[in-house]
């Protein structure tokens, strides 16, 4: 027993060494090496991420993930991304403004390795990066209010707009204020050299995102006589946004007008046939696609209509 334990320990040590060795070999690296850049308006920055064939640059913010695809007023890309060699990908930020403030990530989706740098472009007029919609979608316990200070010296606090109550949480430079939020309106406040400025308002909207979905079907009857009515309900719990589609016998399909409705934390699709015929016999399959995470599932029931 003891010997076994010892050899397991030995194996683990070897394994740890190997993991360390591998990450040394494949590690992503961003150059220049600074974790944070404070840039003057109109200046430029060239960041290179090397160490992988699969690495990509992404912008780390829920409300503007597509920032790196954006174009300037003249229709030119705002960001230039190019492979300088097969294992290096460069991101060129040209003529920066407050809009470029944020966290830039180099991600290898294959190995899930990530490196990031924060960029700040202080603007005496614009203390907080403006958000187009001021909406925060809440899908977990903690969310981030994207009041991103353009100057890292600004101290940020978060308040409930209606009560002015300060909210406990953590300000993440370049990302926003992370806290447990409710479905109400919040506002951030910045403080710099004794001066105060408020951010725009942010509305929090909760969205339930299930880990999996399990539709189930209930019917008035599964065996019925010709002429009897038939009701088939497909229900999925814990979902607020979903699309239903049905696969049903052709005779029934002609008459079908599925009604979708929601109740507290569930969605339903209902088929009502006032009069059945033998042709209604067969399999009724309800497909559900949840639209936030894209989960999908189905459930089915077999119906027999006797002649
Ligand atoms: C940015 O860095 C890449 C990789 O080192 C280099 O090939 C490229 O010329 C640089 N571009 C500018 C504008 O500095
Ligand atoms: C991920 O990396 C492995 C090993 O380098 C490679 O064989 C595989 O093709 C890569 N997969 C993708 C999706 O790039
Ligand atoms: C932030 O504060 C430090 C120390 O007061 C100062 O040296 C620096 O210039 C300030 N940075 C900006 C961007 O205002
Ligand atoms: C199906 O849903 C409708 C509408 O809510 C309801 O009236 C009916 O009783 C349900 N039928 C079954 C079999 O669950």
TrEMBL record:
<dbReference type="Pfam" id="PF13895">
    <property type="entry name" value="Ig_2"/>
</dbReference>
<feature type="domain" description="Ig-like">
    <location>
        <begin position="215"/>
        <end position="302"/>
    </location>
</feature>
<dbReference type="InterPro" id="IPR003599">
    <property type="entry name" value="Ig_sub"/>
</dbReference>
<feature type="signal peptide">
    <location>
        <begin position="1"/>
        <end position="27"/>
    </location>
</feature>
<keyword id="KW-0732">Signal</keyword>
<dbReference type="InterPro" id="IPR007110">
    <property type="entry name" value="Ig-like_dom"/>
</dbReference>
<dbReference type="InterPro" id="IPR042495">
    <property type="entry name" value="PDGFRL"/>
</dbReference>
<dbReference type="InterPro" id="IPR036179">
    <property type="entry name" value="Ig-like_dom_sf"/>
</dbReference>
<comment type="subunit">
    <text>Forms a complex composed of PDGFRL, TNK2 and GRB2.</text>
</comment>
<dbReference type="InterPro" id="IPR003598">
    <property type="entry name" value="Ig_sub2"/>
</dbReference>
<dbReference type="InterPro" id="IPR013783">
    <property type="entry name" value="Ig-like_fold"/>
</dbReference>
<protein>
    <recommendedName>
        <fullName>Platelet-derived growth factor receptor-like protein</fullName>
    </recommendedName>
</protein>
């Amino acid at each position: 027993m003891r010997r076994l334990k010892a050899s397991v320990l030995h194996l683990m040590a070897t394994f740890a060494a190997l993991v360390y060795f591998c990450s040394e070999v494949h590690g992503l690296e961003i150059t220049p090496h600074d974790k944070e850049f404070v840039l003057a308006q109109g200046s430029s920055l060239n960041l290179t991420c090397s160490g992988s064939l699969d690495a990509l640059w992404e912008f780390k913010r829920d409300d503007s993930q597509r920032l790196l695809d954006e174009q300037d007023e003249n229709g030119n890309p705002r960001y230039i991304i190019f492979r300088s060699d097969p294992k290096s990908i460069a991101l060129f930020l040209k003529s920066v403004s407050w809009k470029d403030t944020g966290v830039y990530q180099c991600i290898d989706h294959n190995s899930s390795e990530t490196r990031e740098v924060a960029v700040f472009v202080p603007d005496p007029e614009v203390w907080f990066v403006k958000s187009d919609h001021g909406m925060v979608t809440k899908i977990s316990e903690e969310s981030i209010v994207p009041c991103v200070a353009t100057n890292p010296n600004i101290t940020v606090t978060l308040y409930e707009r209606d009560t002015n109550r300060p909210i406990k949480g953590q300000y993440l430079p370049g990302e926003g204020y992370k806290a447990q939020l409710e479905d109400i309106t919040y506002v951030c406040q910045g403080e710099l050299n004794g001066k105060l400025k408020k951010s725009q308002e942010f509305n929090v909207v909760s969205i339930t995102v299930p880990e999996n979905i399990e539709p189930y079907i209930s019917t008035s009857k599964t065996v019925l006589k010709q002429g009897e009515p038939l009701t088939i309900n497909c229900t999925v719990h814990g979902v607020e946004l979903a699309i239903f589609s049905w696969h049903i016998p052709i005779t029934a399909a002609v008459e079908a007008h599925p009604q979708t409705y929601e109740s507290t934390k569930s969605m339903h699709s209902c088929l009502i046939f006032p009069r059945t015929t033998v042709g209604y016999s067969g399999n009724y399959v309800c497909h559900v696609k949840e639209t936030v995470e894209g989960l999908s599932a189905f459930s089915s029931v077999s119906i027999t209509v006797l002649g």
